[in-house]
Amino acid sequence: MGTLTQWEQDEVAKANESGRRPVVFVHGLWLLSSSWDKWRALFEDQSYATIAPGWPDDPGSVEEARRDPEVFAKKMVKQVTEHYLEAIDALEHEPAVIGHSFGGLIAQKIAGEGVAAATVSIDNAPFQGVLQLPASSLKSAAPVLTNPTNIGKAVSLTFEQFRYGWANHVDEAEARELYETYHVPTSGVPLFQAATANFNPFAETKVDTKNPERGPLLLISGEGDNTVPASIVEASYKIQSRNEGVTRLATVPNRGHSLTIDSGWREVADIALEFVQEFAPVES
Q1: Could you tell me whether strands 186-187 and 154-155 are parallel, antiparallel, or unpaired per DSSP bridges?
Q2: What CATH number should be reported for the domain holding residue 42?
Q3: For residue 21, pLDDT beyond 80
Q4: Which of 32, 19, 18, 240 is nearest to 120 (CA)?
Q5: How far apart are CA 96 and CA 273, in angstroms?
Q6: Does 71 fall in a domain?
Q7: Are strands 118-122 and 154-155 parallel, antiparallel or unpaired?
Q8: Enclosing H/E stretch for 126
């Protein structure tokens, strides 16, 4: 039985009917697929079709998510990756894939399956083999990792935690607006999976970086990100650059983890768009 909801199936059908190159957007923890709405409009203006599936069982709105937070509990990296692969398998044209945070990790896993025409990974969560553990990253993950029972729960951030981990490069007013507009609870499991990956040979955060069919890959980091510091993205790039495919790294100065949703989103989106247009041009 498939896992795609009716609206996700409808998005795939619409993309197929358009005959255009699709772009698949993958969100990460503490966000919903609606966090990509501005990006989708930009790419559609450039004649791409876009789809933005949620994670399995994602609610339809931020308000609904806050009313029923436990729907997020126990979601795992493999389960989420397979959900996106199901959507991609239903597409008639090979897509570009763009992901942020754990969505960036999942985008790289998808690329490792050889099913993406081009991939953009933004502030990706570390995959197995990335050894860097900066202090700010540990502090950002502490609301989940300091309580082992969170592995089976949905976990929310306080505003102060969101301010430190996400919104540290915007002003107070914008930080509060982002928190109220976008923040939702999230599964605790993926953070535990990432934290233990280098001690687990069967880790679900493993990425096939050697597949010659991986395709072009761009990694983007926010220079001031506390949740995924630039050193994690740089270490990911170092590993991925051993692949024979095109591998690039872009660092955006003075940006935090909110770089895909805050007022500077367009700067990051334009970098991603240029890469996608180069390696996964629109098909009419």
Answers
A1: antiparallel
A2: 3.40.50.1820
A3: yes
A4: 240
A5: 10
A6: yes
A7: unpaired
A8: none
